[in-house]
TrEMBL record:
Cofactor(s) the protein needs: [4Fe-4S] cluster; [2Fe-2S] cluster
Pfam family of the protein (one): Radical_SAM
SUPFAM superfamilies xrefs: Radical SAM enzymes
EC number: 2.8.1.6
InterPro entries for this protein: Aldolase_TIM, BATS_dom, Elp3/MiaA/NifB-like_rSAM, FeFe-hyd_HydE_rSAM, HydE/PylB-like, rSAM, rSAM_sf, Se/S_carrier-like
One record GO biological process: water-soluble vitamin biosynthetic process
Entry keyword annotation includes Nucleus: no
Protein name: Biotin synthase
Domain Radical SAM core: 143-363
Organism: Alkalithermobacter paradoxus
UniProt keyword list: 4Fe-4S, Iron, Iron-sulfur, Metal-binding, S-adenosyl-L-methionine, Transferase
UniProt GO MF annotations: 4 iron, 4 sulfur cluster binding; biotin synthase activity; metal ion binding
Length: 440
């Protein structure tokens, strides 16, 4: 039963991976680009997956085309042995159970399967879904919750995304920009806590030119060596490239929704195809590629979310931020209801089952509408928490949605403890200081 069906070919670099995949596709070989398992220690975050029987010939074609191969591995089917046994007694529809059975056997889920999972009804089905995702997370990534620090360094934005609380049209919003020194001060604080990754997020702020961002990246790398995630919105390809050359590691640019109509409706300044193109550039340039979606946008259905999830899989996305829509004051969507916590958790869970080896944050947006939201997400497949480290004098004005909860170390403590999980070993800060605080 533990039959190996696919081999994973790892290449010397992202451009070799992309060129190699094209060579194989042109030769008529069926391939897929999948996130590379971490234990194979790759230079490139994406592996080319081929059928086992095509492995030798693929290797030959790649070598003939001067593609550097750094390794070829058997893909172990991700099985969850005993899953069905654990949930058999519950009230679960046959159809639903048969999909979890596919998960148990390590089979791929179809679009229809994903829709059925997202439509999980009643406590038993939902719990079974969350349980499956939780086991998948544990199997693949273990119990440590990765903690990262985010700095929202500017709320100036040239765009008017209809849901966003820092959109250009919000003329009453007090705008701020942190300067390089202020940002570096926080970066050093995060570094001294032992954190490994800093996330630099902002509106699309033209003041922060290519050169200014470049200087910041260079300083962070030189002074702390931390990993850098950029979340600056859309930029010209050469800027993505420049930042990567200077050492940026990850780029987070969410697709927000793959329903083109909804996308264009909520993003008056954006072009859907261009957004996807940006995401492809990010991948090509060798970034760890971050995407994600908003749950509960006007008009969005389970089918749309299923497409989002398949998009993440097909694009080989490595980090996927899934959060509920939250109406922000003064925006065109302020009167719309917030997205449901439950649908968000289902989307997180299904994403874990479909995309498997990916970073899934328990998002800040979830914590803003449900105090236990992050704990729940950690129990439904999530494995990462982002601390918000924007100085408090600015935080109020970076409310991309209203009532945004401040995710600090203490709430991370609470979420991680609540989900019975482990703090990262690299922390130089004793999280147990929060253990006897009444509201910890
Ligand atoms: N300007 C950058 C960073 C945006 S803020 C960019 O465009 O990529 C980061 C994320 O916050 C967005 O990608 C979006 O998914 C989320 N967001 C913004 N407003 C929101 C809202 N009202 N409800 C839920 N999520 C929101």
């Amino acid at each position: 039963m533990n039959e190996i069906k696919h081999h994973l070919i790892m290449t010397g670099s992202t451009s070799h991976m992309l060129r190699g995949d094209k060579v194989l596709k042109d030769k008529g070989i069926e391939t897929a680009l999948v996130p590379a398992p971490a234990e194979y220690g790759s230079v490139c975050a994406i592996a080319i997956r081929v059928r086992k029987e095509d492995s030798d010939i693929s290797e030959k074609y790649l070598r003939e085309n001067d593609i550097v191969i750094s390794g070829i591995y058997e893909e172990k089917p991700q099985r969850l042995t005993g899953l069905i046994e654990k949930i058999r007694n519950s009230v679960i529809r046959e159809e639903f159970l048969s999909i979890l059975k596919k998960v148990e056997e390590g089979l791929e889920l179809s679009f229809e399967d994903i829709v059925i999972l997202l439509k999980a009804e009643g406590t038993a089905e939902k719990e079974a879904l969350f349980k499956a995702a939780d086991e998948m997370r544990k199997e693949i990534l273990g119990d440590v919750v990765d903690i990262r620090g985010a700095i929202e360094f500017s709320n100036y934005c040239r765009k008017d995304c209809k849901y966003c609380g820092v959109r250009k049209g919000l003329t009453t919003l007090e705008r701020y920009r942190m300067d390089e020194e202020e940002i570096m001060e926080i970066v050093h604080e995060l570094h001294s806590l032992g954190l490994k990754t800093v996330i630099l997020q902002s509106g699309e702020d033209p003041f922060w030119t290519k050169e200014k961002i470049g200087n910041l990246i260079t300083r962070i790398k030189k002074e702390t060596g931390m990993r850098i995630t950029l979340s600056l919105g859309e930029r010209p390809r050469e800027e993505f490239e420049y930042f990567k050359e200077l050492g940026a590691d990850n780029y987070l640019l969410k697709i927000e929704t793959t329903n083109k109509d909804i996308f264009e409706y909520v993003h008056p300044d954006d072009d859907y195809d261009h957004r996807i193109e940006c995401s492809k550039w990010i991948r090509e340039l060798g970034y760890i590629n971050g995407s994600g979606c908003i749950i509960g946008l006007p008009g969005q259905r389970e089918e749309d979310i299923a497409k989002d999830i398949l998009f993440f899989k097909d694009m080989g996305i490595n980090m996927i931020g899934i959060g509920p829509f939250i109406p922000a004051k003064g925006t065109p969507l302020e009167k719309y209801p917030h997205g449901s916590v439950e649908m968000t958790l289902k989307a997180v869970a299904v994403t874990r089952l479909v995309c498997k080896r990916v970073y899934l944050p328990a998002t800040t947006a979830l914590a803003s509408i449900d105090p236990d939201g992050q704990t729940k997400a950690l129990k439904a497949g999530a494995n990462t928490i982002m601390l918000i480290n924007t100085p408090s004098k600015y935080r109020y004005n970076y409310q991309i949605y209203s009532g945004k909860n401040m995710i600090d170390l203490k709430s991370a403590y609470k979420a991680i403890k609540g989900a019975n999980r482990q703090f990262p070993p690299y922390l130089k800060f004793d999280m147990e200081v929060f253990s006897d605080e009444p509201n910890a």
